[in-house]
Model the fold of this input.
Amino acid sequence: MSSTPEIDTGTTADDAAFWTTSFAEWLPGPGDSLLRAYSDAVNKRLLDRWLPERCGQVLKTDLFDEVAGDGLVRFLLGRADRVIGIDIAESVVGVASARNPRLEATRADVRSLPFADATFDVVVSTSTLDHFETERDLGQALSELHRVLRPGGSLIVTLDNASNPLVALRNVLPYSLLHRIKLVPYPTGVTTGLAGLQGLVEAVGFEVSDVDAIMQVPRIAVRSAGTVAVGDPARVDRLLAALLRVEPPRSLPFHRRSGQFVAVRAIRRPSESAARKDRPQTISAPSRLSGGPRAIAMRVLGRTIYRRLIWMELDLDQRPAGLDPSVPLEFSFLGVADLDEIAAFRPGLSRASAEERLHQGHRCFGARHDGRLASTRWIATGWAPMEYLGVAQKVPSGTSFLYDLYTDPAVRGLRIAPATASALCRVLEEEGVRTVTAAVHPDNAPALAHGKRYGLKPVGKVGLIRIMGVRRWFRRSC
Ligand SMILES: CC(C)(COP(=O)(O)OP(=O)(O)OC[C@H]1O[C@@H](n2cnc3c(N)ncnc32)[C@H](O)[C@@H]1OP(=O)(O)O)[C@@H](O)C(=O)NCCC(=O)NCCS
Ligand SMILES: C[S@@+](CC[C@H](N)C(=O)[O-])C[C@H]1O[C@@H](n2cnc3c(N)ncnc32)[C@H](O)[C@@H]1O
Done:
């Protein structure tokens, strides 16, 4: 039976009226045909890479692409048995279905979907969820997408990239001005960067498998280029081909900032009961949404103005005795020859990023069970990279910073990560390292539990306060 969550129907009705009016008032500008062709082409490239070969039943979460340009539905129908499209505005649904007879379109609010649990094999959400007024709506929509996907099904979601300076600027300028100069056809809303999107998607129960930032040329530049090609389809095609060549390698450091959109591919984890049936020895993980009003408020703040990590340390001469895992493990450092395996193992870490880490002198320590990687973690010296805060903190000599630990979800709860850390500490001590440190998110109960198990103790907090674009770092002892 469907467990559709409650959503204020007044809100849906107001938003439907608002979007219907926005659509009725929207008149494409002279550069829009190039912009829409570019948007479609970039999205199709992403879908081509990330969609399964055969998709079964697909949900698309808005139909604006299908009324503003060619859209993505025809491409999706090439891979899917059925494509079901929704949009909150009836008029958008009407135009999109008239143009795409095989599309099954219906009016619905993505925050409260009229579909039973586990209906879809794939959900495609291209920039639908970045137009809400509150983060709560964004979380609500992601929970709905999780609910209607079958366990093991894929979500592909993109949002306006809050880390892109032009997008950030656009989001603080008055909508009336932007609309008047035809820079945006509709109002923008709450959005986030890549790490934030990954966190939000994981928080509702997905396992992230890939991340990317797409559409590297700013809208304003595309629109300006498009104005010179009005009424000349051959010229539009040539400009489009040129635009598509400007996608820098995903490994370049600025790539995540220069993309107009952040994109995440995630898998709905197999259901709790199925996981328990397969692995009766594991303990179920605490929900990341637990923790009471204070914890929830801190999470909301974490995505807006306040982020902090718990700084933990262990003096190796005081480390507890070695820990035994519940399954046999083989430990080793992984190197360049293992890059493909590392990237295939760790969702969200590309081969190029792993290679870059090795290039910077970081090391990767892994545990194998039955010959397959079960857990990995990275070791840095000199500087402690903290992607969540966007900074690197200096660490003294004789100290190693342990980061990006990851255990295969299929074998979590078996003490593999603490046993791996314990084996690593023994090796590091033999190498002359005196202290290991780590920075852990206060809500990450499994990571905190595993750290305490091998002897890490909280010694302080490190964080970031950002108000009106001004950033201030802090580090406090506890
Ligand atoms: C943190 C992590 C590496 C721990 O790995 P692990 O090998 O499962 O470690 P442990 O067996 O000691 O389990 C640690 C805690 O995970 C939780 N846990 C138990 N079973 C679990 C399961 N099936 N799934 C998820 N978490 C589980 C428990 O809280 C457990 O502590 P407890 O036994 O005291 O209650 C792993 O959960 C992970 O890869 N998480 C995703 C990546 C991440 O958050 N990294 C940390 C960044 S700082
Ligand atoms: C949010 S944007 C879509 C952007 C488009 N996919 C793109 O990449 O340019 C506007 C579209 O989303 C629809 N929409 C807005 N809120 C919605 C909601 N809560 N549920 C479903 N569709 C919604 C609007 O009607 C409109 O067609």
